[in-house]
Amino acid sequence: MKTFIENLPKAELHLHIEGTFEPELLFEIAKRNNIKLKYDSIEELKKAYSFDCLQDFLNIYYQGAGVLITEQDFYDLTYSYLQKCAEQNVRHTEIMFDPQTHTERGIAFETVINGISKAIEAAKQNLDVSALLIMSYLRHLSEEDAFNTLEQSLPFKDKITAVGLDSSEKGNPPSKFQKVFEASIKEGYIPVAHAGEEGDADYIWEALDLLKIKRIDHGNNCLQDEKLIQEIIKRDLALTVCPLSNTALQVVADLKEHSLKKMMDLGIKTTINSDDPAYFGGQVNQNYIDTQKALNLTKKDLYNLAYNSFQYSFSPENEKANYIKELDEYYSKQ
Ligand code: HPA
Ligand code: ZN
Hints:
TIM Barrel; 9 strands; four-stranded parallel sheet; binds hypoxanthine
């Protein structure tokens, strides 16, 4: 099973670039930017990676992102993740980035987007991995702040495919961002949002009805509401599920109790993703491997998950078809 998963062509649809910041690279970049960290060693930093809830994690995640200053930093961070994609047979990835985490600290939008985009171009050439970008608004900040971010993104519209919504969910419902999502859609961005990770099913309803999302990030709590499940199926919306994130943030007590298989059995289009792999103990393949073991997933289940990852990506239809063909060829040889 492990080898089957490692060689399985797949896409990753829920990944925060700031969450791929491995401690080793974090220390290296902090050093070259003359930033003194609160932690004296990589081991000490890693010890802090124990979380009771989403907010607990976010505090450390934003601290880590605070050492990114130059275009080269954003390039190195992104390229390092894309190399991991190539090693794991991740053929395509849809990368979220949080501009406000950086612009709030005085880093120019341009620095962030150029560093990330140049790494994506290089990876396409050198690694044969495709990637597109999802610009995520921080929901703990105001809608006005999100509007400023949308404005700043416009000169770089050709580099950005979608907009997302992340950070502290509880108390920051999707309705807070209805207008900025409307404006983002008018600009041609595809809307997605984190919903139902810690928030209840009503947050998912809002994301569907008010933000008009085309994919649901996490979405675990949709299972609270039978009508919502039917609506998600009817609208053919996929969920980007992140199993190791869910256990790390105590959204799910144990992987054996994860509802991913139940979602699949209900007919919800489900995918497996790593979210913030540097913080949650595993890249995307580890998420597949651990979930397969915990839930007894079959090769057919794993094929379906990989199939969904391509089918529900925002790649052009011809690219999707090519990736699915590659997947089918692989699966037919098993
Ligand atoms: N949820 C909300 N915000 C985030 C996450 C997440 O899982 N990862 C990075 N920002
Ligand atoms: Zn996320």
